[in-house]
Records
---
Amino acid sequence: MASEYSLADFVADLKAVAGGNDDVHDILKRLPPHAVRYAASDDLQRRCNRKADPGQGFGVQVLHEESDHTLAVMALSWLPGRGTPAHNHGTWSIVVGVDGDETNTFYKRVDDGSRPGHAELKELSTKSFAPGQVLAMPPHIIHAVRNDSDALTVSLHVYGKNINFTGRSKFDPDRDLEEPFVVTTNA
């Protein structure tokens, strides 16, 4: 059942939990119930533009971001059969399914990170997340996302800092490559 929990309500709760809080594990423990509530809200349904960039395979709609790029709230719309390369976020993150399933493949970095542009990854697991389910990740987690359905899907993403300002990386596990990862966003 949807609710009238607004973006302003969610941002107030986000600031109460994460504002000035350096304890990532505390944030990842306390914030998910608020994110689940906002993901199910009528307010998010009204705000979500459900637009995806065919070039990157998904659309990133920034709903809220502090002036220093912290506490970013985004709605991501995923084209059918598309997704992301393996990547990290460089910040903590909470992802909640809104519409349709999102498949995540998780990796572990097995090299020491000392060679620029080089990264060796080992695939750990793959899991599908349905609407209302939460994925809470500390900054070091590496994963790839895919929409394996034949319809556009949507997920709510909350980050400690806007992902385009964290210096994060994308990875090619087949070629042992690491590169900067910046995504195109829209309003």
---
Amino acid sequence: MKQTRSKFGTAVFWKHKSLDQLTAEEWEALCDGCGRCCLQKFKNASTGKTYYTYVSCCLLDIETCRCKSYGDRHYRVKGCQVLTPDTAVTFRWLPATCAYRLVACGADLHWWHPLVSGDRDTVHQAGMSVRGWAVPEDMIHPDDLECFILKDSR
């Protein structure tokens, strides 16, 4: 039987494997590079609702929407969360468009995901990344963070 391939030329592994079956390379490839998970967030203790800000983690490169220190980010940034197959389902603050969350729920990737489109820039072209509108956290005073809450927070 011929294996289905994405435009990227890779097998559409996300349709045939669960998150805990992915290789390390497949796990990393699943990240769409939107940078939304690296935005500062507030959680309402009484409602559980998460409010995103447009302030990014100090390690996020806003142009590429990639971490500047990916290998040791958990040590350098207090509160940086470890995403695993188990936490992909429990981290309700992950964007609804997050590939890890989609695959964990049995859904397919969006057309703009680099594994589907074959182009790392489609996430930006589709307006799904934080490129062009996120503000680095070192540009604002920490006491002002609540002034940067996005109106369409999830």
---
Amino acid sequence: MRVKVCGVTRPADARLSARLGAWAVGMIFVPNTPRFLTAARARRVRAAIPKGVKAVGVFRRPAREALLRAIRELRLDAVQVYGAVPSGLRVPAIVVAEVRSTRARRPRLGPLDYALVEPARSDADRRAGRGPSAGTRLAAWKVAAAWGRRGVRVLLAGGLTPDNAAAAARTARPFALDVSSGVELRAGAKDETLLRAFFDAVRAAAPGRGGKR
């Protein structure tokens, strides 16, 4: 089972995530959110992501030229997009589906793309860094499982912690789990103890399923 550590704001956290076996490290470029990175800080975090670990930029409704510039300047391996995905990016897109119920519609995906399933939250909750409700979280797990059975490479996010990572992995069986606030003591600063516990929980839930793609 793979892990994407998102909302990384410090080079040390990028290096630690890689040492623990992260498949990807996410950097957030959504203004007015707790883990937003300026271009200068993003370059420092990107430099700490080693070869073999995917560097992912996270954007909300980005302009195409701004997205292409970020891909080029930060050498991004993939982009995670809330909203419409611009064409011609030349890197895989992680297309976000914010789920409110098990009737969620699957997004349109290219052959190299991924779907990121996460419970829907209000804009106020997102700005404050608050997690989803238990009901929407369970709906997201069920949607992730259903799409995965249809061959979609699904990343599951939203309210994941060391305490529920194993249950999420067993219930949803996603391509990867995506964790951010669940391994922090404060926004943007990953806690080593929580991060290690998260990886341990994921490995315990899916023994023998390691590997990077």
